[in-house]
Design goal:
Layout (H helix, E strand, L loop, with lengths): L2 H59 L4 H8 L3 H9 L8
Length: about 90
Amino acid sequence: MDREQHFELLRKSAAEVKQLQDHLQEIRDKEAALQADRVATLEKLKTARSTRFQRITAAIGDNVPKAPIARELGMDRTNLYKLLDGKDEAADG
C-alpha cells in the first residue's frame, strides 16, 4: 500500500468518526430539549394538581359528597382521602 492509499483510508476513518460524533451531538441536543420539556411539563403538572386540590376542597366546602367527587375525577375514594390527608400528593386514578 502506498502513501496515498494510507491517506485515503485515514480520511475515510476521520470522516466516519466525525459523522458519528455529529450524530451523538444531535442526540445530546434532543435529550437536552426533552429534559427541558420534561421539567416544564412537571411544573405544569404541579400547578394542575394544585388547582385540582383547590377545586376539590372548594367542592367539599360547599357540601358536595366526596364519593361523587372521586367518581367525577376518575379516582378511587381511598386515593381522594389520602390526597385530602396530604399522604399522597400525586394520588391519581
